[in-house]
């Protein structure tokens, strides 16, 4: 069973600026605002990996973004980005700890600030060429990974309210681009993995018609309550997506988090183990959504501990 954690090399997945409104807000909001410097501490990274491995984890999903100096597009990298050689050293560290390293590049227009100017060329020939280069080089750096997480969550105008540049794909264009990324992953020997919240906003038939059957799904829900009969419509929609994806025959790695509360991950495991077909339930992910830096180390360690507790036999 997959027991995975999402960790950030790059954090430039949200705001394309540092909004004045973020001053005085919680640390998480400040961490997610645009930074020209890499928000990553090697010591914290090393300690969290070791703790997760000791907690029984076996996979780390790495949000790569602009945190590596790509040979094909070095112009994307932020100050302090890892060299290709340094990244390979860290991937070896993962392997030595028994952690399968999986790359993540989020191509949602809500989470692609890491692409810099290319994020403002969405769905153009130049954009597709850059995405093709980045997927191929990332697969080469990760030595033919089994999966490749392409993100694709929260592509709405509301989710971009603090951005200076807002763009949203709709209809057939969104589906076309999703399938483009999936095809490029397959071309490089990796299986595409996506956030599943698109299903919250469309019918089962539309989702099944447009999303290849082999795309691994990670629906996500971060609250602590799972009693469907007593939840509001939004929360029911988020939780019921697990059941809908199961009925449609997709394999899943449900995602929980300690971002909002400390009981969600275990609740996610219990709910999904009870209601989903075990043959299609490949495992679980915890997604803390904090930078890999010392001031967030306590929360990252807590996420590891929650994984250990939830899977304790």
Strand order of the largest sheet: 3-2-1-8-7
Largest sheet: 5 strands, parallel
Can you tell me the CATH topology?
TIM Barrel
Which stretches are poorly predicted, pLDDT < 50 over at least 5 residues? Answer: none
Spatial gap, N to C terminus: 13 Å
Compute the average pLDDT. Answer: 97
CATH class (first level) name? Alpha Beta
**Structural class determined from secondary elements:** alpha/beta
Radius of gyration: 18 Å
> What's the tally of helices?
9
What does this structure look like?
Helix 5 (171-187) links the parallel strand 4 and strand 5 (191-195). This protein has helices at residues 27-32, 42-54, 84-96, 125-141, 171-187, 204-210, 233-247, 264-275, 297-310; strands at 2-8, 59-63, 100-104, 147-149, 191-195, 216-218, 255-256, 283-286. It contains nine helices and eight strands. It has a single domain (2-310), classed as Glycosidases (TIM Barrel). Strands 3-2-1-8-7 form a five-stranded parallel β-sheet. It has a three-stranded parallel β-sheet with strand order 4-5-6. The chain starts with a strand and ends with a helix. Helix 4 (125-141) packs parallel to helix 5. The model has no long low-confidence stretch (mean pLDDT 97). By secondary structure, the protein is of the alpha/beta class.
